[in-house]
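sorry to bug you again but im stuck and you know this stuff better than me. what follows is a protein written twice so to speak, once as letters and once as structure tokens for the fold. id like you to explain what the token line says about the fold, in plain words if possible. anything you notice is useful, everything is just below.
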Amino acid sequence: GAGDGNPWVLSFPLGSGEVLAIADASFLRNSRYREPASAVLGVRLVESISRGGPATFCETLHGYLEGDSPIGVLWGILRFTAPGHVALQAGAAALLLLLAGAPRFGRVRKVAQPPRRSEYEYVDAVAGLLRRSGAWGEVGRLLAEGVRRRWNLRPGRSRSGGGEGRDAEIERGISRLVSGGSPDRILGALRDVEGSLGAERGARSARN
């Protein structure tokens, strides 16, 4: 017994075996078995109830009631204790957050794309700005540059084979474009240049 008069170890029969009730079982912990006295005491207690037979340590029971299990004990804590109720509520809230944030299975919906801008929007904007400002000289210069790029023309070109007159006519038309003046004059010069270049291309195709 203990020094205060209370029993330290109780032994009582149960079925065909015997049960030991220990007031302080800390000496049975793994960390205490390094102490020789704790290990010897544990072995002596087992020997006292095994009566010389083999002793088996069941790792899964640890004092659970008959028919119970660690999972059953955990479920009972969750169901019948306040900390268990808090744990259940926290788990339910976490599950709802996961369901809300997870991608859902179902029909794939296309994301509406912003309408594409017209490829002529920049040209229209510049043309409108030049028209409002009345910069017809700048308009003629830009059109002349566009004509030269389109037809691969270089200023002051000269050719043999009867094309000099056509070249001079084209250059005069481009000069009228550059000089600007008014919208009608620019459009007339542009038509003359494009007509001359088209006729030259037709003549070249006929010669080939």
